């Protein structure tokens, strides 16, 4: 035994002196750590759990104090609005008050972030970003593999291609629709890698002459690229099939040539598809898009993250009568023009979103029998699991710079960002990781973070790799923070308010001001309608034009289509332009979106708004509570499928709570609307065999949860939905 211990020490095996651990750990979770997480790492079980307990001892009290401060500040803000209601809102007095109570902190001097060892997917490549519930292994794999996607398939299967003149999607392959797809794709080539003369629809052959790409047109004339540097290399696929690799705005795509393929054989040049580099990064989500309320659920979350880090995650399933096994894609190998080989990543660079500071989880209880803070638990567990990637235990590499990317949501101001950074540093010490190995993505989705964004970035300037805007959570917090200020404008009108325009610009301005250009991501929020791809294609250019070098999309297909925008717009150039514009104004951010007296809604308008909000809440909550589904495509009142998660639920519940508080409606009216919409939601889910109707009894746990979210919304911490949802889901389980 002595020899074994000496050998372990020699090899760097972390094994503290045996310590009695006071934690009460769920047996399945303990088994998972011992049997699956720790093998291959230089840490004993005792070292893991004793270190985790030490972390809890050091950070749990501070975690609680930060949550208490949130409530104290909210109480002071509520009282200020009550005290000043009769005298009217005065911006300068409001700003002075927020400064006095520490809600607004002193402004930082100019600085630039200094984060090191950041992968190029974050530093240099602008493109789509996916957010996916890591709890669903199939979805997690699909998203990770969405680094490359078929443009032909994305066009054919969506409404970007119309169904006029016999181009219907239904049934088998429709050659009329196929022609429209090909025409669109070749227009894309004309725009992205233009020829010196001619169009791609007239190309009949590709060949290589002196390391340059030469193309033959239908009239037998020769042409070439306007920019020869856009052609990168070649992939031989055998039997006369090959791929031509191109690069534009730091993004790749591959023209796939195969004259024997059913599509390629009808193409003059033998083109069968265009493979697009699509989801450059993916956030594997432990938070808003999952329903993880206990040890059983957290094991699923962590096991899937472990499978991604080790590269062995697989899922087998039946699809249209075929048994399919999905696993991670390998890297892609190309022969460059200079004769050297290059490997391009076959998978998205993965970030992991931990939960925020609010919730605890019963999977582990401390020595006093208290549930441990779930955010601390997530940071410790996801970091430990990520070490498999860092030390090369995996089949593939995620981070080639040996970094761990944790996106941290729902932080309120610089103190809470500092807390996360301090926690990360302590975890790095535990696992002998170099300082700042753990990078932080700061989600700008809480009002106190927005107003103090520069100061939030400053405390994390050696770790930060990401900021973004999130309209829904941010609006939820806007409503909750200013609950006593008055009734808020309808949701549909919120995007036209001054504060949100300032918020979107402010985030970009602060990011660029603090050195994000060429170093970190500035993100924009989710496209919420996964079936409305034509509308997305028409409108989502606004995000790269606004300076966002990543923007959220709801599916791999959407990522492939959104990638087109990053070929059309070189974000680096846009960011350089935006550096010179007039900066967003703090005063505009502080303008509260209350209904103006001359625009007060009618009784019919109020009813419509309540029904719209209730529909979204019920459609989401019933699946969350009854089935443990954390992210759903929920039909709205007009049967348009919308992606719903806890953020969308937060804004809808807070909006009802606000109107209820200001007597635009009554509790009885809210309950009646909930009952009315529950009947509709039941009908919309009639084909789901696992669905449990809410009507006509209206006495189920899910229905009660939905009602509580609205009626008790004013009293939920920061307006969050998690306390009620977790409580009801645990009761349902």
Distance between the termini: 45 Å
Helicity, as a percent range: 40-55%
CATH superfamily of the largest domain: Malate synthase, domain 3
The side-by-side strand order for the widest beta sheet comes to 2-11-16-19-20-21-22-23
Please give the radius of gyration in angstroms.
Answer: 27 Å
Largest sheet: 8 strands, parallel, barrel
* Poorly predicted runs: 1-12
Task: Give the number of domains.
Answer: 3
Percent strand: 15-25%
Entry summary:
By secondary structure, the protein is an alpha/beta fold. The chain is built from 26 helices and 25 strands. Mean pLDDT is 95; it is low at 1-12.
Layout of SSEs?
Layout: H1 2-10, E1 24-25, H2 27-37, H3 45-84, H4 91-100, H5 120-123, E2 127-133, H6 137-144, E3 148-150, H7 151-156, H8 175-192, E4 203-209, E5 212-217, E6 222-224, E7 231-238, E8 241-248, E9 251-257, E10 271-277, E11 281-285, H9 295-310, E12 314-319, E13 322-327, E14 332-336, E15 341-344, E16 349-353, E17 360-365, E18 371-373, H10 374-390, E19 404-408, H11 413-430, E20 438-444, H12 447-451, H13 453-459, E21 464-469, H14 471-481, H15 491-494, H16 498-513, E22 521-524, H17 533-539, H18 542-545, E23 550-553, H19 556-568, H20 571-578, H21 586-589, H22 603-627, E24 632-635, E25 641-644, H23 646-661, H24 667-684, H25 701-711, H26 722-732
Parallel strand pairs: 2-11, 2-23, 11-16, 16-19, 19-20, 20-21, 21-22, 22-23
Antiparallel strand pairs: 1-17, 3-10, 4-5, 5-6, 7-8, 7-14, 8-9, 9-10, 12-13, 14-15, 17-18, 24-25
Helix pairs in contact: 2-9, 3-11, 9-10, 10-11, 11-13, 14-23, 22-23, 22-24, 22-25, 22-26, 23-25, 24-25, 25-26
């Amino acid at each position: 035994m002595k020899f074994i211990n000496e050998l372990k020490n020699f090899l760097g095996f972390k094994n503290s002196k045996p310590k009695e651990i006071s934690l009460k750990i769920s047996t399945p979770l303990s088994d998972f750590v011992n049997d699956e997480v720790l093998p291959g790492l230089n840490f004993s079980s005792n070292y893991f759990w004793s270190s985790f307990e030490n972390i809890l001892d050091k950070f749990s009290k501070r975690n609680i104090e930060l949550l208490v401060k949130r409530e104290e500040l909210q109480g002071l803000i509520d009282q200020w609005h009550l005290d000043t209601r009769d005298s009217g809102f005065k911006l300068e007095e409001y700003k002075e008050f927020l400064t006095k109570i520490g809600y607004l902190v002193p402004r930082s001097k100019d600085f630039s972030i200094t984060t090191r060892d950041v992968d190029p997917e974050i530093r240099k490549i602008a493109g789509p970003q996916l957010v996916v519930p890591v709890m669903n292994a199939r979805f997690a794999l699909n998203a990770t593999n969405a680094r490359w996607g078929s443009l032909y398939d994305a066009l054919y299967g969506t409404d970007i291609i119309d169904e006029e003149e016999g181009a219907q999607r239904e049934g088998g392959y429709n050659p009329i629709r196929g022609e429209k797809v090909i025409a669109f794709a070749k227009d894309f080539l004309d725009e992205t890698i233009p020829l010196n003369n001619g169009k791609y629809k007239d190309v009949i052959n590709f060949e290589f002459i002196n390391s340059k790409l030469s193309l033959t047109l239908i009239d037998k004339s020769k042409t070439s690229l306007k920019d020869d540097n856009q052609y990168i290399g070649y992939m031989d696929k055998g039997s006369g099939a090959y791929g031509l690799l191109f690069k534009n705005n730091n993004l790749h795509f591959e023209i796939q040539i195969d004259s024997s393929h059913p599509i390629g054989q009808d193409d003059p040049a033998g083109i069968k598809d265009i493979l697009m580099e699509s989801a450059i990064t993916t956030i594997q989500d432990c938070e808003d898009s999952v329903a993880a309320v206990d040890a059983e659920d957290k094991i699923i979350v962590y096991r899937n993250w472990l499978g991604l880090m080790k590269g062995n995650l697989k899922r087998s399933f039946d699809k249209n009568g075929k048994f399919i096994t999905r696993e991670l894609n390998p890297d892609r190998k190309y022969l460059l023009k200079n004769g050297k080989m290059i490997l391009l990543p076959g998978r998205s660079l993965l970030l992991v979103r931990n939960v925020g500071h609010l919730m605890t989880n019963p999977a582990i209880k401390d020595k006093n029998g208290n549930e441990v803070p779930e955010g601390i638990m997530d940071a410790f567990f996801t970091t430990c699991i990520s070490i498999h990637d860092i030390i090369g235990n995996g089949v593939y590499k995620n981070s080639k710079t040996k970094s761990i990317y944790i996106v941290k949501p729902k932080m309120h101001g610089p103190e809470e960002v500092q807390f996360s950074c301090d926690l990360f540093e302590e975890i790095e010490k535990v696992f002998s990781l170099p300082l700042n190995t753990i990078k932080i993505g700061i989600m700008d989705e809480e009002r106190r973070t927005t107003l103090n964004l520069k100061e939030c970035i400053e405390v994390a300037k050696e770790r930060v790799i990401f900021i973004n805007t999130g309209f829904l959570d941010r609006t939820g917090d806007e409503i909750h923070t200013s609950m006593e200020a008055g009734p808020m404008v309808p949701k549909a009108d919120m995007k036209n308010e001054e504060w949100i325009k300032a918020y979107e610009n402010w985030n970009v301005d602060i990011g660029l001001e603090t050195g994000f250009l060429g170093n970190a991501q500035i993100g924009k929020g989710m496209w919420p309608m996964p079936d409305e791809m034509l509308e997305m294609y028409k409108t989502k250019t606004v995000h790269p034009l606004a300076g966002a070098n990543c923007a959220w999309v709801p599916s791999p297909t959407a990522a492939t289509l959104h990638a087109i925008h990053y070929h059309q717009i070189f974000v680096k150039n846009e960011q350089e332009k935006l550096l010179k514009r007039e900066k967003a104004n703090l005063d505009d951010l502080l303008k509260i979106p209350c209904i103006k007296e001359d625009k007060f809604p009618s009784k019919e308008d109020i009813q419509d708004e309540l029904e719209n909000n209730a529909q979204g809440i019920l459609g989401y909550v019933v699946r969350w509570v009854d089935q443990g589904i954390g992210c759903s495509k929920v039909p709205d009142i007009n049967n348009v499928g919308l992606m719903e998660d806890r953020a969308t639920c937060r804004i809808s519940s807070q909006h009802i709570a606000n109107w209820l508080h200001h007597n635009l409606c009554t509790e009885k009216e809210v309950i009646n609307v909930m009952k009315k919409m529950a009947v509709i939601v039941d009908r919309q889910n009639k084909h789901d065999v696992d669905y449990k109707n809410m009507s006509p009894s209206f006495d189920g746990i899910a229905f009660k949860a939905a009602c509580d979210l609205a009626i008790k919304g004013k009293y939920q911490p920061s307006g969050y939905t998690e306390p009620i949802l977790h409580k009801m889901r645990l009761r349902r389980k």
